[in-house]
Amino acid sequence: MDEHQIANAPQGPGYIVLEEARKVSEADRWATLPERGTPASLRVIAWIAVHVGRTAARLLLYPITAYFVITAHTARRTSYEYLTRVRGRSPRWWHVFRHFHCFGATILDRVYLLRGKFERFRVTVHGKESLDRHVESGRGGILLGSHLGSFEMLRALGVMQGSVPLKVLMDTLHNQNITRFFDALNPQIAGTVIAPDRPDTLIRVKESLDSGSFVGMLGDRVSSGDKTTHCQFLGAPATFPAGPVLLAATMRSPVILFFGLYRGGNDYEIYFEEFSDEIVLDRARRAEDIHLWMKRYAERLEHYARLAPYNWFNFYPFWD
Fold first, then answer.
1. Alpha-carbon distance values, 268 to 77, 112, 120, 161 (Å)
2. Where are the domains positioned within the chain?
3. What is each CA distance from 94 to 79, 147, 305, 310, in whole angstroms?
4. Which of 77, 101, 158, 215 allows an S-S link to 166, with CB 3.0 to 4.6 Å?
């Protein structure tokens, strides 16, 4: 497939990226939520983290978490709904507090990860042999993650330690304050981002895969204009983007699932899982094939959400 064919492909991710699709109300659920962090507050927290220490910075997370539990009404309601589904019973307010605090802890740890302070963390890796086989083959592939846990752990280890040649397909328009702040901490990692809404997006993805790099993306959040499919997740239907399946099918690329779970304190667990060596979509049953692949993804996402229930960081109304 040459560059002209990719750029003008009538189906697949090019359709999502390059053409106006119908508006997806599911995308508006999170994209319209206001950004809460200000540049000044982020700089203060980062200064404390670097100059005073992680212990002091983690203590500061408690009043910050309390503030957001009180004021972030939509996120709080979503946390209650999610925790009810994943735990199988109604949560108390302290469960929601713990949920918010876990999110804050992973954001704080990004400061250290982006500064290369890996010695602060104990990281256990599961299934790395699956990734190693693809790295050694030089073929490249798609690393499909989620908003469960810390995707930053993979980005930092892969880019800064050179263990995984990695690019990231990521929307940087939402939460621009926090994106610019973290990009400034490590321009090397910021330079690995491929924006999903540019005319040359597919060309850059293909070039990355052809060079043996992996392209990381998240499969559990819909952007405006995306094609979607509906899957059961934690006992109720939810909307998932079709983009990961369409991209893998167009690029004829292997897909490996990735989950970086925060286990409290200094501990993280990274899981790699073979998902598909190649995704092929039958033109006669294209929608059904997409649904089956994303259903498999949603099942694995649910599995890991139950393993680490406080790691789910989609704080917007998720279920249909």
1. 27, 14, 11, 17
2. 3-20+118-311
3. 11, 22, 19, 12
4. 158
